[in-house]
Write a structure and sequence with these properties.
- By secondary structure, this protein is of the alpha+beta class.
- Helix content is 18%, strand content 38%.
- It has a 6-stranded mixed beta sheet, sandwiched between helices. A 5-stranded antiparallel beta sheet has the order 13-12-11-14-20.
- A hairpin with an 8-residue loop joins strand 1 and strand 2.
Length: 480
């Protein structure tokens, strides 16, 4: 028998045939694990939790409990309970009656109810308070009552949807530790939703990092922090310096105009993203590191100084227990194990398109000028309408399926929506050393990755400008 208590296989969720809110979601959760769905607002984590609870049904895929499909099972038939950010306690009932509400519906005896309520009050550290009014409780105490009401029913799985979001910072940190302790006492499976990385790192056995409805990485807190699988994870979990790099030889990468020994054994000339945590940036005397840099700011953060350095066009953030003087030149030394190299996946924008009768290419919801002669070496135009092969035979292009590739560095953006061939919305941005990396999503739900030194805001509407000579076309087989 599988040790997994719950499995999600090929889960997809969309509403009214619009873009998928969750897609290609596959996850195994073992009995007794504390699993956290972590990601920004709108990434699909709460929708996934609601599908496990039965409040939403998947558009595709299966949810298995002990190997049995429960995808269509109503919430009251599932051995799960949910704790929400808004506690939904009954203000006219005291603590005991709030906790006992579900037990009374099950028509349990008073003796059994009293026994169960006393047990969970002990677990949430509110013994002897069963007759108190809900109105007299602090936010943290109300949260504990909401948890007690959920666990008193002894579900196999406890679902928690940002339950600490309404608490202040100090109380939230205290409740993180208490929730972890409760989990250990109960031995119950916890599935937790949050956008707060500290919560996820503090409490979880397993973290599922999500973005844009998809899983970006699954692992322990240490694995995700130390070995992020892409720049989204590196940027979202903790603080990171992120740079464009290239492997100059095996176990050596170049970034910030300097060469660094690293542990990642990738082929020479591989384009990479390089991640360096600020705590791994060591400041030395000038000339004693792999490069020199100028101190441009020094801010005391309580337990360390945050020092920002400039090397050429690149900005480097370091954490140090010692201050640095603004304007000083320092050496920068990074140990090989402080450099994490990820093969770059976003140096090209790749699309499927078709050639129009006007010899333009249509893709991503727009129509763009391009050089169609590249599809057939030696071909030529006699005018702007007809294309001929090198042997003089006419080539009919209209409707021809092609792949379209555009290097990210040649794209541009404008706030003039008529300036380019397609309009979209900035859905994400990451600072990469000396520029920002933007993702612009068009109305046809296609994504462009664009580099720009200027700072734009998330959700800005922009037009995407593509130089015609940077559109690379290759033939693809028709699906017909």
């Amino acid at each position: 028998m599988s040790e997994n208590i719950i499995e999600l296989k090929g889960i997809r969720k969309s509403y009214d045939n619009t873009k998928d809110v969750v897609s290609d979601f596959n996850l195994e959760i073992k009995k007794g694990e504390f699993v956290t769905f972590l990601g920004p607002s709108g990434c699909g984590k709460t929708t996934t939790l609601r599908m496990i609870a039965g409040f939403e049904l998947p558009s595709e895929g299966q949810i298995l409990l002990h190997g049995k499909d429960i995808s269509e099972l109503p919430p009251n038939k599932r051995p799960v309970n949910t704790v929400f950010q808004r506690y939904a306690l009954f203000p006219h009932l005291n603590i005991r009656d709030n906790i006992a509400f579900g037990l009374k519906i099950k028509k349990m005896s008073k003796e059994e109810i009293d026994k169960k309520v006393a047990r969970v009050l002990k677990i949430v550290d509110l013994e002897g308070m069963e007759n108190r009014s809900i109105a007299t409780l602090s936010g943290g105490q109300q949260q504990r009552i909401a948890i007690a009401r959920a666990i008193v029913n002894e579900p196999e799985i406890l679902l928690l949807d940002e339950p600490l979001g309404a608490l202040d910072l100090k109380m939230r940190q205290e409740m993180q530790l208490e929730l972890k302790a409760m989990h250990e006492k109960l031995g119950m499976t916890f599935i937790y939703v949050t956008h707060d990385q500290e919560e996820a790192i503090t409490m979880s056995d397993k973290i599922v990092v999500m973005s844009d409805g998809k899983i970006q990485q699954i692992g322990t807190a240490e694995e995700i922090y130390n070995e992020p699988e892409n720049v989204f994870v590196a940027d979202f979990i903790g603080e990171s310096n992120i740079y464009n790099g290239v492997m100059t030889k095996r176990k050596e990468v170049q970034f910030c105009d300097a060469k660094f020994e690293c542990l990642d054994d990738l082929p020479t000339a591989t384009l990479t993203d390089v991640v360096v945590r600020p705590e791994d940036v060591n400041l030395t005397e000038p000339g004693k590191g792999q490069m020199n840099a100028t101190v441009i700011s020094n801010i005391f953060k309580g337990i360390h100084y945050q020092i920002v350095l400039q090397s050429g066009k690149n900005e480097i953030v370091a954490k140090s227990t010692k201050p640095a003087n603004v304007g000083d030149t320092v050496g920068v030394y990074i140990e090989p194990d402080g450099i994490h190299v990820i093969p770059a996946k976003q140096h090209l924008n790749h699309f499927e398109g078709v050639i129009t009768k006007y010899h333009t290419v249509e893709f991503a919801g727009g129509e763009f000028e391009c050089d169609v002669t590249q599809l057939f070496p030696g071909s030529y135009h006699d005018d702007k309408i007809h294309l001929f092969s090198k042997d003089g035979e006419r080539i009919h292009l209209t409707g021809m399926p092609v792949y379209v590739d555009i290097p990210v560095e040649y794209l541009d953006m404008s706030d003039d929506e008529t300036a380019g061939g397609v309009v979209g919305e900035i859905v994400s941005l990451i600072y990469v050393g000396d520029h920002y990396r933007y993702t612009v999503r068009t109305e046809s739900q296609e994504d462009f990755v664009i580099r720009d030194e200027d700072l734009w805001n998330e959700y800005d509407r922009v037009s995407v400008i593509i130089p015609p000579d940077q559109i690379k076309l290759t033939l693809r087989e028709s699906e017909e």
